């Protein structure tokens, strides 16, 4: 093979939130001293909310360089294209110094954008100059809610609307913004090489060793619940307090992070109850630092209070929402990782950390997670027999491109839940919850049908009686 065509090797550690990605990357760094870590978490790239976003601390890093960690202005929208454009020069620099880049994160579309040389956003600039499509000039995208935004997208570009979930506010806003600024129908980007090749295993920018660290779902659920409690104890409420503003836009920047909007109702009630704090700010009688000094101590006391007041109830409810939404996130992340395998052909080295989570000791983590991963990375770097890297075998391109990724399925039994693609629909249809709801719906429909027939029969008998009366 021509040396110029040999792809540089990178390690990619993936997994759902709470699975131990950062811990594994640091463990690998202790076995491969030339490691530098590139963060690929869409919330950890922002400055601020270090506790809530679970950033690695300098003490935990132990001197291992961490790139793209807390660098981005929290008010800006940082896209996968922005991430890619910043990450590639960093990775190239790490490689040029004969060091090993380990890309770590649960934001799969960031990693897809990074490893794939094809990205839909790149086509926009080329197409915009030739566009003849009228643009949105009289709509402020920030002022429309999720349902209205999806309806608008469906009117403008039904093909694009059919590709995404009606509640996927990020993508809806992205598509509308694309149309508003460039006049390009988003669906035009789904045509040609960009759509067919984006994120596919046969077109990677690097020679990638993908490590997927995972554990049994009940253990991950318990872990993220405990982690939220630890975050509260470590000052999470103070972090959210510092960035809280009434009527905030929770669809942009750092405020998208799970654990921010969940506390909105609590803080609205908190500030309304603390009228002296509001008045002091209104009359400019107390500085912001003084206000923080007077109000922040109250936050830690509310949760520990034995009083059954409204604020405490709202705070407990907010924490429960935070935990529930984090559990939902880890399920979405696991589904997306499975899609990368089944629909895009990614070859992943699966590491089951279940026993390490059960034992919770450093030795167990080393035995069940670190040691297998060290062997995987060493085999990958040395190209030992038996290791299949991302460029190690041909892929069934026909199989990959024939996947049904666009068709939407609506499940009536589960409250008209929308599923994308045949694979996601089949997974949902086989689920225990769906089967119970479908059975209940069918039973109700049968009962309704029987009742209707009985009613018709009764009406017929009544009419017959009247007709035969003398």
TrEMBL record:
Residue runs in coiled coils: none
One GO CC term, this protein: mitochondrion
Any one GO molecular function term: tRNA dimethylallyltransferase activity
Alphabetic keyword roster: ATP-binding, Cytokinin biosynthesis, Nucleotide-binding, Transferase
GO biological process annotation, one example: tRNA modification
DNA-binding found in the keyword field: no
UniProt-listed HAMAP family: IPP_trans
Identification of the protein by name: Uncharacterized protein
Organism: Vanilla planifolia (Vanilla)
